[in-house]
Write a structure and sequence with these properties.
This protein is 30% helix and 25% strand. By secondary structure, the protein is of the alpha/beta class. The protein has one domain: Rossmann fold (3-Layer(aba) Sandwich), CATH 3.40.50. The strands form 3 sheets. It has a 4-stranded parallel β-sheet, with helices on both faces. Strand 6 and strand 7 form a beta hairpin. It is globular and about 45 Å long.
């Protein structure tokens, strides 16, 4: 692949996915002041298990400005549960739906957990986690080729 500062694809898991969305054009507010953290060099985003934005209510207005291609990856058991905070699989779907891009794809794995994309093996198990990581890598590489090389891929957008 040819390299250029105008061909950056950002990727992140969990709150790293939120950071990726912010760098890709998502707009949150702090003290009723819009915060713009977008980076024009980013041409696409891979968003793995993005929770809702903490302390933010209007997911549509936050994510509508994201107009670049996005690949969203999650699972049906993708839940974050810490004291005072819960974000589940329906939040991942709401984030996908709210993205303003016309070029977006969603991959949902059956079962698993929020941690299955990490090196933790307790939730999901070592076999399922490894399968999911391999599938995520293949999806991501196909998405990257599609975006950077303007190629067709097996991922519908």
């Amino acid at each position: 692949m040819k390299s250029s500062s105008k061909q950056i694809i950002a990727a992140g898991h969990s709150y790293g996915a939120n950071t990726t969305l912010l760098a890709s054009g998502a707009r949150v507010s702090q003290d009723n002041i819009p915060v713009d953290l977008s980076d024009a060099r980013i041409t696409a985003a891979i968003v793995i298990s993005a929770p809702r934005f903490f302390g933010q209510k209007a997911v549509n207005s936050i994510l509508q400005p994201v107009s670049l291609p996005t690949l969203h990856i999650t699972s049906t058991e993708d839940n974050i549960q810490i004291p005072g905070y819960f974000s589940g699989y329906p939040d991942r779907l709401a984030i996908f739906e709210a993205i303003g891009s016309k070029r977006k794809a969603l991959a949902v794995f059956e079962g698993g957990s929020h941690s299955m994309f990490t090196d933790r093996s307790l939730t999901g198990g070592t076999v399922l986690n490894q399968q999911i990581k391999e599938a995520t890598q293949e999806l991501s590489l196909d998405f990257i080729a599609q975006v950077l090389n303007n190629q067709e891929s097996g991922i519908p957008t």
